[in-house]
Fold this sequence. Notes:
heterotrimer, A: 262 residues, mainly alpha, 4 strands, B: 211 residues, alpha+beta, Arc Repressor Mutant, subunit A, 2 domains, three-stranded antiparallel sheet, elongated
Amino acid sequence: MAQTDDWIQRSSAADRLAEEALIIDVEGFEGPLDLLLTLSRTQKVDLRRISVLQLAEQYLKFVNRVVALRIELAADYLVMAAWLAYLKSRLLLPPEPGEAGPSAEDLAAHLAFQLERLSAMRDVAARLMARDQRGRNFFARGQPEAASIHRALRYDASLLDLMRAYARIRTRDDFRPYAFDREHVFTMEQALDRMRGLMGYMGAWSDLTSYLPEGWATSPTRRRSATAAHFAAVLEMAKRGQVELKQSEIFAPLLMRAKGEV
Amino acid sequence: MDPAELSLFSAPPMGEQERMVEAVLFASSEPVTLFDLQRRMPQGCDPAEALAHLRRRYEGRGVHLVQIGPAFAFRTAPDLGHLMLKETVETRKLSRAAIETLAIVAYHQPVTRAEIEEIRGVAVSRGTVDQLLELNWIRLGRRRMTPGRPVTFVVTETFLDHFGLESARDLPGLKELRAAGLLDSRPLPDMTAAPDEDDSAPSDQSDLFED
Amino acid sequence: MDPAELSLFSAPPMGEQERMVEAVLFASSEPVTLFDLQRRMPQGCDPAEALAHLRRRYEGRGVHLVQIGPAFAFRTAPDLGHLMLKETVETRKLSRAAIETLAIVAYHQPVTRAEIEEIRGVAVSRGTVDQLLELNWIRLGRRRMTPGRPVTFVVTETFLDHFGLESARDLPGLKELRAAGLLDSRPLPDMTAAPDEDDSAPSDQSDLFED
């Protein structure tokens, strides 16, 4: 940092205090460019005459101190630090003969331009807001006259409305639940209906799978769906006391029969 | 010198008082009473005199200063009432169904009624389509070369004009809608899955249903 | 006598036309376009001339005739705002980000989101753009004819009306900014050296504000 201190003219106590304040207030900056603009003010020169090299030093010093204080810095501050370190080295070293790309001076000039432009936009933003404003400084007719019998209806919509509507539809699409392929799905309600009808014909213990409907026992997808549906259905019926179930061991066929007095 | 006297001396000139009354009556949403004027104007003002001046100034003009009970207001000169007839155009927002239908036509044109219903997920009432046709924001396009040869809808020049668009291609895509904050910021599981569909929304959709 | 001549002869005298314009503008709280005036007034009228007369007549009065883009309206004189405390509407305080974004759109329009971010050096949050769109101070402009055809933002007539501007050309400090080159789009000198790539960006000040 000794080298740095050579660079920056001896700073007054006030300047040092200002720097301390910057560190504490790091959250208050709107990104590296905002910070650079604030730092540049300490040079007390026209932004067009600013020393980018000096500014780079200030920024790097600032970032180093913040990091030393273990204050988390957003990535873009570090990206800017890396870029400024690169710029600084380019500015200090003589250009390599035959080097491609923009010169260090071009890059420095661009940074100065960005700062000047941001500063200018802030100035005009302030001037804009300081203007007389409708509803605050000047006013429209408070009592527009519309006392007439003739009443035409006009429908209106803005582009914003249109886009919102479209966004709404498209967003709804994203949330639309996955639509089942109903052709290969046998629901529990269907199975329950079916089994209720078949109950009268149930005799001795018989395998649940023998009750699968026609056309649902062969294809694996359909078989799976129908079996699950019928299993759920007979569980429901057992709960209601309409059937009895038994299974000799895990994965053994599930046997069922109608319960005595139906 | 006591304060009352001081403010009396510092009362603005009558011309200035007239301007004040003029501005207050103009901006107020209701007729303004003399008392109210007095209260609003600097101390020492004489709103009654200012009103009298102002009334004379507006004699024979397009608007008059009139007294309504104890209060005062500007009113259109009665002989010019006929110019106000068109003032009563009532602007009404399009219904949600209409704006959604319009959006679908704009983004997917040419599009059939069945396709609109598929996208919206609900039936499109005849009234909705009729309203958009009447507004001249949509019109019939070419018939689709599919069984039944259904009619298609496209947007009109009037539509583009109203919404300040050069062509329907200028409508922002989904990605841009999101960037502009027009979509919910809730994470959308599907969005990342079909990024290019988002983007091309307005441009390539013309042949979306062409097959 | 041909019809044009006939209607010319039958047009009301200028004093009468002035009254008509005065009545129409007084009756409306929103700006009325020249076209609209023309449409309402009898054939052969010259609302533009009537407006010029009227503007002079209201100079220095409590209400002024102001131009807002292609439209005209009466507004109270700004120096009398203090009398209107009752009418003052409490506006939501804009964030610094929103104010800066608004200024950038106003001075650089048409401008893309990426350009706004370039100038401010930080990402523009959705809420910010959304807020300005809600206020109807900015709207979407034409797409930029660059890869990706990004949407642009421009300011609206509501914006002009709110800030008492006749047109975007009257923005404070605009000329100085332009003269200083601060409205040029100047891309970062490219490390990989591809100089003229970003030609079509907004540097083209000729069609700036044309929208």
